[in-house]
Design brief:
By secondary structure, the protein is mainly α. Helix content is about 70%, strand content about 5%. The protein has 11 helices and 3 strands. The chain has a 3-stranded antiparallel sheet with strand order 1-3-2. A hairpin with a 5-residue loop joins strand 2 and strand 3. Helix 5 packs across helix 7. The longest helix is centred in the middle third of the chain and has 40 residues.
């Protein structure tokens, strides 16, 4: 069954203008264009639109979304990753709701205010410097028990590992003899991907998922100052991005 552009816009809560723009940039071509010039969308294009909108809600830009969709071609696998992220966000919001309701009950004299319960489900400041700052908001909700289970010593060791990785990236980026596709940079990229996939709850649950996850983060390292600062600024972040992209293209 095909639907017109107006019908699809209404169903998806977007606009015909947005859909036309997605077509113009090659992100969401219609299944066909009628003799009257109208765009029509079948089931496969609706699934693709759903993926685009889900990735937009994760804070990704259209160029990044196009790259991710190109790499992660399996619709069922891609949507499974999206579903796990949505469920994680649902769980995190449910915990926030419970925490706020607890505070309200305490203010109304229906219970004792417990500081330990007030911030359950909220982002933890210890991860503000991490490279998953946007993707990690959802990932952290699922990995919260893992992080707490590390204990203070384990958390300190994990942060030292991240600091060492970032320092090595900055040193490589400043060395004119090292290019993003050089063996030294590719060794760093392999370490980086291994570090990312070691964190429970990330979208790196499959080969395609890992590629899409790394590509999305690589672009964010450059686009977001909070990422770039981990690598000495935009030039260092660009070096990391290019090295990770080169690494991803070589992954099976």
């Amino acid at each position: 069954m095909e639907r017109s552009i107006q019908q699809v816009a209404k169903l998806a809560g977007t606009t015909s203008r947005t859909l036309r723009h997605y077509d113009d940039i090659g992100l969401l071509p219609p299944s066909r264009i009628g003799h009257n010039g109208y765009r029509y969308y079948d089931e496969s294009t609706l699934i693709r639109l759903q993926r685009v909108l889900l990735l937009r809600e994760l804070g990704l830009g259209l160029p990044q979304i196009a790259q991710i969709i190109e790499v992660q071609t399996g619709e069922a696998s891609a949507l499974t990753t999206h579903l796990s992220l949505l469920r994680a966000e649902q769980q995190r919001l449910a915990r926030q709701i419970t925490a706020v309701q607890h505070t309200i009950n305490s203010l109304q004299g229906k219970g004792k205010l417990m500081a330990e319960d007030m911030f359950d489900g909220f982002d933890h400041t210890v991860h503000q410097e991490e490279v998953e700052q946007r993707w990690g908001k959802d990932a952290y909700a699922r990995s919260d028990s893992w992080w707490r289970g590390l204990g203070k010593d384990g958390q300190a060791q994990w942060k030292r590992q991240l600091q060492e990785l970032n320092s090595d990236w900055m040193a490589a980026a400043k060395d004119p003899a090292i290019s993003p596709d050089s063996p030294q940079a590719q060794d760093l990229a392999a370490r980086h991907v291994q570090w990312l996939t070691s964190i429970p709850g990330t979208p790196a649950g499959s080969a395609d998922g890992t590629k899409a996850y790394v590509l999305g983060l690589a672009e964010m390292y450059v686009a977001d100052e909070r990422f770039a600062v981990n690598y000495g600024g935009s030039e260092g972040a660009s070096f990391v991005r290019d090295a990770l992209k080169a690494h991803v293209t070589r992954m099976p």
